[in-house]
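Lecture 7 notes: from sequence to structure.
We start with the chain below.
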Amino acid sequence: MYIHVYLHYQMKLEQAIQSNKFRNEVQKAGLNILYTAWWLKTMTCKELKDFGLTHEQFNVLRILKGKHPNQMCVKDIASRMIEKNSNVPRIIDRLEDKKLVRRSQGEEDGRQTVIELTQTGINILATSTIKVNELYDKLLTINNNEAATLNALLEKVREKED
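Predicted structure tokens for the same chain:
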């Protein structure tokens, strides 16, 4: 599986989308960003499937781990999501069903629902993070200098982000 995907990744964008008609290099770059994001998300999802997690659930667990041992309200979790249109309450419902998070009333504001990681959540996040990191190490074949340049370019692309 990894060999096929690796070879697929080495394809040029034109081969992957079976088109070489671009208005200009900027349009091609935009499509390349979209295709690469889809590819990386797909590979990550395949890795997370072994842990019974979706990409969005993994993201929520990572966000909660960043505040651990403190709790977080749903609104704060949602504001940190990579995919802003994610249905965070539903994601939390699923994580709670799996006993990876615990939901309770806020101490300062009883109307507020707060979320915290369980020990099971911490454990599954730790093991799944190792696997995702190994996957990224295998798939992302750029060095730190190239990554810094790419990061700067991607931030430039998003200069007009709302």
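Points to note: The domain at 55-126 is CATH 1.10.10.10 (Arc Repressor Mutant, subunit A). DSSP finds eight helices and three strands in the chain.
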